[in-house]
Amino acid sequence: MNKLKNKVAVITGANSGIGLATAKRYLKEGAKVVLSGRRKEALDEVSKDLEGDFITVVADVSKSEDNVQLIKDATDAYGSIDILFLNAGIAPPTPTTDITEAHYNEIFDINVKGPIIAVKEALPYINNGGIILFTNSIVHQKGFDGLGIYAASKGALRAYSRVLTSEVKSRGIRVNSIAPGPIDTPIYGKMGLPQEVVEEMGKGFAAQVPLGRFGTSEEVADAALFLASDEASYINGIELEVDGGLSQI
Ligand code: NAD
Fold this sequence. Notes:
By secondary structure, this protein is α/β, with parallel strands linked by helices. 41% of the residues lie in helices and 17% in strands. The longest helix has 22 residues, at 101-122.
């Protein structure tokens, strides 16, 4: 129960899905958690069910100044950071024929620019031996129609994480990524698709997964706990697939 005792964790996209499940898991393991999200009402709502030492910070990760403020608020509250979990992301699909500059910019600003700016801002405050975690996706390992920009954004993040792993090695900071497969979270309802299309898409994904089902946020949170804990002390620079085997067949 005390795998993260007194560790300070900053989590983006913490008011929903994988980020929220991880915040709960980290709190249960004794961490002090900074939950960040874009909407104050959502953060206020989820806070009602949380127990432990935490604060919430409203930040839109696509805005550099919000990332600066997030790290400032986190370090004003807790001094330094042990675990930086850059998890916020969006996945609106668009076939290549329909891609617009606005679509590209929105996805890359949130999924790539945001995490990179947050890392830059946080680095002076991350304790030596700390952990930087990214929520990536298996989408950049396989081809899923309509997810070109999303896949490109996660591939970019993966490439960046390899460089970062090397750049922070002298400080003993571990950099790892989690690559979820289809996970049952609200993200599918935010894709801008009709419900029946989402359901059909979901059935299609589940049928491709060797375990035959979607994963849960809690199953991803378990991986996020493992990678942030001392049990993963010699695991560095990897992308851990939490996907029921989808990426492996
Ligand atoms: P979710 O929609 O439940 O959570 C996404 C979180 O990101 C939300 O809290 C949302 O508010 C936040 N967010 C989005 N844009 C933001 C912005 N501009 N500023 C701040 N926060 C913002 O979905 P989820 O499935 O839990 O997604 C979490 C991560 O997992 C994402 O990076 C997503 O790409 C990745 N992922 C999800 C799946 C899946 O099947 N659910 C698969 C692979 C990867």
